[in-house]
Amino acid sequence: MLDLRHLQVLRAIAREGSLAGAARALHYSQPTVTHHLASLESHFSARMVRRGSRGATLTEVGEALLPHADAVLSRVQLAEKEVRDLVEHGTPTLRVGTFPTAGALLLPPAVKSLRGQGVELSLTEGELPALLDGLRSRQLHLSLVFSQPGDRLDLEDDVDVHPLLDDPLLLALPADHPCAARDRVPLAALREEAWIVGTTDWDPCDRLLTWACRQVGYEPLHALRTDDYGVIQGFVAAGVGVALLPRLALGSPRDDIAVRPLDGPPLARRIAVAMLRSTISRSAADLLDALRAQADRITAAWAHETVSPRPDGVSGGA
């Protein structure tokens, strides 16, 4: 019969590269590691580890078992944490991730409604890669995420993605720019402009910008890279470049910049909730419902406003 210790030993050998290293990592004696490895190999009637003068590596059979061992051990760790939270606090703890602009406008009203139901929340703010890592490692039960429409986030099959809203991308340019007098600005008119973009090439807004510029025959020139929307607006005002800003991140426009929609196909980033299927179902479902309601309110407000305001002081990245 399989024992969790068998899987822990296999994973430790894979990570440490030797039985001695696995023993140190697990605080076992080396004979104990050898015993559990032998039991595992006996269970499957196959060698799991290849030992040599330079250490130990997994065989093909061991490599096939390793991702299942990781999944089982991660699920057990999550179960232990959820049950301990419930025993210690008397209420479930829901671990939620968010990126800054969603944390400012989408999440607080939803959290307020859930806290009134006696649910404990642990909130983590971060950029998208860190949030996705948190979901993969089961450190987060659910997270607000964003992507380019049509993209698939690199998440496992046991994570469901629930769309909330499409966040339009708006053009920010200096208030005295010739195109500021237009109601809508075609990208073709910005061929000679420099663009202020994000720090990473995977950013959905920047990939959409590159795609849209290519449709009208040019590659956007990058003047500056930053993920801080306050910094972006400052450098736009200074005439360093122009930028695409998500509407959630815009806030009340500065007097020295102009914000205009682009002429042509609408560009937007998709905001969604990524949620583990194995999470605390009732609490997570209630938060998802509250987030959907807040997303509907934001979308309705956008339909009646030229620019969506945001609270003062929200100037962070994504």
TrEMBL record:
Record keywords, A-Z: DNA-binding, Transcription, Transcription regulation
Gene3D superfamilies cross-referenced by the UniProt entry: Periplasmic binding protein-like II (3.40.190.10), Winged helix-like DNA-binding domain superfamily/Winged helix DNA-binding domain (1.10.10.10)
Entry-linked Pfam families: HTH_1, LysR_substrate
Domain of life according to the entry: Bacteria
PROSITE patterns, alphabetized: HTH_LYSR
Residues in HTH lysR-type domain copies: 2-59
Family to which the UniProt record says this protein belongs: Belongs to the LysR transcriptional regulatory family.
Name of the protein: LysR family transcriptional regulator
Species of the source: Streptantibioticus parmotrematis
